[in-house]
Amino acid sequence: MITETPSDPDEAFASLAHEAHVWLARPEQILDPDYLERYGALLSSEERAQEERFINAELRQLYRVSHALVRTTLSRYARVSPADWRFQEGEHGRPEIIKEHGIPALRFNLSHTKGLVACIVTQEIDCGVDVERVGRVKNLEGVARRVFSDVELEDLLDRAGADQEDRFTDFWVLKEAYIKARGMGFQLPLRDIQFRILEDGAAEMSFAPGFDDNPSEWQLHLQKQTYFDEPMTAFRLATALRCGENASRAIIVRDIVPLSEEALSSS
Ligand SMILES: CC(C)(COP(=O)(O)OP(=O)(O)OC[C@H]1O[C@@H](n2cnc3c(N)ncnc32)[C@H](O)[C@@H]1OP(=O)(O)O)[C@@H](O)C(=O)NCCC(=O)NCCS
């Protein structure tokens, strides 16, 4: 059963003891210049400078909505205004919240692709999220030969057409969600991380000999996200959570277009 996230930040944070929440926004659906202006006002000066570096207006909007989504989402779980969150990057660029006085043990991860932004939030545990549009990558076989394990490649090459594109995107987002949860990006050898897709959005992960991690500590989730407006767009969303052995969290995914008025008004 999907329940509402409590509007009280303390209660919302408490719900993360047994859940992980993914908030989605569709940047291209946000047309009101007033909203966009207000999202921009939530960003730090570093974020605004980063946004300015994109020459393409669509990418600038994607960046702005993504970073406003992170800030407004985190403020659902703590008594901190969206503009007041401060972040620092880990060794490989993964942003984390600077834990100042009174800030609860929240973790998050962001993913954006043309047309969709996702932000996952957890209580303490390592988390990664990835969204990708099905059909974005062209040379599937060439990319798969570089980053898929032999078993994954065989699975891919046994398929054709739309079925192959779907399977490619599934493996891709699972790999990304995991490497993002580890915070290490390209430092991890992608071919050594292998997935098997199960029913109902679950997936199993295994590692090549010598790979330094324990797959049974991880919970993986994969889902289709299709929007039926013109043109129809299909995405895949994957999450990776280090829940620990024999532990799990319910994954709750919510679409918010546009970002909530209520979250903005708390800024
Ligand atoms: C960050 C990285 C891990 C993923 O990047 P990506 O898929 O292009 O982008 P996403 O939209 O999913 O994620 C970007 C966000 O992740 C976060 N991020 C940055 N570095 C990160 C890291 N090391 N770990 C986790 N998250 C990171 C940031 O919030 C970033 O948003 P920002 O750039 O607006 O600040 C990238 O550096 C990388 O290594 N990509 C691998 C690409 C690849 O070939 N994958 C093949 C998979 S089959």
Topology pattern, helix = H, strand = E? HEHHHEEEEEHHHEEEEEH
Please report the total strand number as a whole number: 11
> From the alpha-carbon coordinates, what is the Rg to the nearest angstrom?
18 Å
List each distinct ligand once. Answer: coenzyme A
Q: What proportion of the residues is helical, as a percent range?
A: 25-40%
Distance between the terminal alpha carbons, to the nearest Å?
Answer: 31 Å
What portion of the residues fall into strands of 2 or more residues?
25-35%
* Order of the strands making up the biggest sheet: 4-5-1-11
- CATH top level label of the largest domain: Alpha Beta
Number of self-contained structural domains: 2
Question: What's the CATH architecture of the largest domain?
Answer: Alpha-Beta Complex
- Summed up, the helix count is 8
Spell out the blueprint of helices and strands.
Blueprint lengths: L8 H7 L3 E7 L7 H10 L2 H8 L4 H18 L12 E3 L5 E3 L8 E8 L2 E8 L3 E7 L6 H8 L2 H8 L3 H22 L10 E5 L5 E5 L10 E10 L5 E10 L7 E6 L5 H5 L2
Parallel strand pairs: 1-11
Antiparallel strand pairs: 1-5, 2-3, 4-5, 6-10, 7-8, 9-10
Helix pairs in contact: 2-4, 3-4, 6-7
Bound molecules: coenzyme A.
The site of coenzyme A has 21 residues, from helix 4, strand 4 and helix 7.
What is the compact description of this entry?
This protein has about 270 residues and is of the alpha+beta class. Helix content is about 30%, strand content about 25%. The longest helix has 22 residues, at about 160-180.
